[in-house]
Design a protein that fits this description.
single chain, alpha/beta, Rossmann fold, 2 domains, nine-stranded mixed β-sheet, 9 strands
């Protein structure tokens, strides 16, 4: 027997290409329920007026935040960019704001071949987004970074900070067999955690890229499970190359690679490869030709968390809070690791 069509609500499916928008809209009483399927990170940021997107681990990490930057900007928010930089900060024209903080923009001539922040600013201006200042944080200990982020919070009147990790080694708590490259990520996490800002988030993009640095991704998933139980998970969602924000992110990565042909980012190259549908031992840059890669769709997922529980999970947080230099930070982590009675065993994903 055919159903009575008068009892079936009308459903209109509308495809939205932007990040943070529903894939479908139900016109009728179910619209609000469908919007409940959106990743919670967007609800977390909905009331924010001034948002800082900051690369946590240095290098090209700020690029992994660009899809969020473009989406939040398009939503009418004031959005700023920062990055823990690997570049030399004695650029002519850059302005020192604190011991560990300076600001650069598209007008600053880079004095070295490696200057992704300047080239990103030039790309943004070329795309009609204006001369966007990019705040650069030094590779140092936790204490100078706390001061630097405090300057940013006051200067920019921040009510939200989104730390972005290109990779997922920022989720290692300290007793795993391999931590990846923890110094910059952990210093950034603890510095932002110390801020008096209402909303603080960690977003990771590039699941799998840290295998090269000894991370066992079973422990990444264990961290996600721990943070889920703590109520800190703000959603996991996929970027797709057809999204306008992702198209612009990809264009930015490739443009800056062209501007710095000797120093393309392995992490960003891997993420872009995944967005293109590449799989397995695919090499977008010659830098990885002597390595075996595992490019896969999981690299295009954002994993988002409330920052406080991520910081609280770090076993050696107290040992590094007072560090004043990068050397102090590395030494404190090394001493913590040496003092462990037992480390977790290597654990490959059983799938």
């Amino acid at each position: 027997m055919a159903p009575d069509s008068t009892n079936v609500p009308a459903v209109v499916l509308v495809y939205h290409r932007g990040i943070g928008e529903p894939q479908m809209t139900l016109h009728g009483s179910s619209e609000r329920e469908l919007r409940g399927l959106l990743p919670p990170i967007f609800g977390e940021l909905s009331s924010a007026r001034s948002v800082l997107i900051a690369g946590a681990g240095g290098g090209f990490d700020v690029f992994s935040g660009l899809p969020l930057y473009f989406a939040l900007r398009n939503a009418g928010k004031t959005v700023h960019l920062a990055n823990l930089t690997f570049a030399e900060h004695e650029w002519a024209g850059s302005r020192l704001l604190s011991e560990a903080l300076f600001v650069t923009d598209a007008d600053v001539p880079p004095r070295a071949s490696y200057a992704p922040e300047v080239h990103l600013a030039r790309f943004l201006r070329a795309e009609g987004l204006g001369n966007v200042p990019i705040y650069c944080l030094a590779r140092t200990g936790v204490k100078p970074l706390v001061e630097a982020y405090g300057v940013l919070a006051e200067r920019l009147d921040l009510d939200a900070v989104v730390l972005v990790d290109g990779g997922t080694d920022s989720l290692m708590r300290g007793d795993e067999p391999g931590l990846g490259t923890p110094e910059e990520d952990i210093a950034s996490i603890l510095a932002v955690d110390a801020l008096d800002v209402p909303t603080k988030v960690l977003a990771c993009l590039g699941f799998g890229v840290d295998a090269f640095h000894g991370v066992f991704h079973a422990y990444v998933l264990e961290a996600v499970a721990d943070l889920t139980r703590a109520g800190a998970l703000l959603g996991v969602f996929a970027l797709q190359r057809e999204m306008p924000e992702v198209e612009l992110y990809t264009k930015a990565v490739l443009a800056v690679h062209d501007a710095m042909p000797k120093d393309p980012s392995i992490v960003s190259s891997s993420i872009v490869s995944a967005l293109e549908g590449r799989f397995g031992d695919y090499h977008k840059t010659k830098r990885t030709q002597d390595s075996v890669l595992f490019i896969n769709p999981l690299m295009a997922l954002y994993w988002c968390f409330r920052l406080g529980p991520v910081a609280a999970r770090i076993l050696y947080r107290e040992e590094v809070r007072s560090t004043a230099s990068r050397y102090d930070l590395s030494l404190a982590i090394e001493q913590f690791r040496d003092g462990l009675r037992e480390k977790k065993k290597p654990w490959d994903l059983p799938m």
